[in-house]
Amino acid sequence: MITGIGMDIIELERIAGSIKRNSRFPDRILTSGEKEQFLTLGNDHRRTEFLAGRFAAKEAFAKACGQGIGSISFQDIEVIRNQNGAPELRVNGYEHANLFVSITHSRDYAAAQVVIEVRN
């Protein structure tokens, strides 16, 4: 049964500005595994897209749970790649649920949608 749906959209320019103002901003948003991927990306634009997508996915998850970031930490939510390269969520305390995530980018925005399905 689906128990939550959340979406989020974020401006890439806002994320780029946050990175410029505070070099530790990615550390606040990304888990250590995500940070490893982030650091391998070849240019600032791709890093901004990556960080914005993870930010949107984590916000969308919090909304799907019916709570905001603060009740749950960015560090409790991790976006990983499955064997095909598609994003998947790992979240502490949600091992009992199927979590679905979709992340997209445009020239100016990153957006994500999350669906939480509780297994019977």
TrEMBL record:
Positions bound to Mg(2+): D8, E59
Keyword RNA-binding: no
Entry EC number(s): 2.7.8.7
Recorded catalytic activity of this chain's protein: apo-[ACP] + CoA = holo-[ACP] + adenosine 3',5'-bisphosphate + H(+)
Domain of life: Bacteria
Subcellular location, principal: cytoplasm
Co-factor requirement: Mg(2+)
Every 4'-phosphopantetheinyl transferase domain range: 4-112
GO molecular function: holo-[acyl-carrier-protein] synthase activity
Function according to Swiss-Prot or TrEMBL: Transfers the 4'-phosphopantetheine moiety from coenzyme A to a Ser of acyl-carrier-protein.
Family, similarity comment: Belongs to the P-Pant transferase superfamily. AcpS family.
Official protein name in the record: Holo-[acyl-carrier-protein] synthase
Source species of the chain: Lentibacillus juripiscarius
Lineage: Bacteria, Bacillati, Bacillota, Bacilli, Bacillales
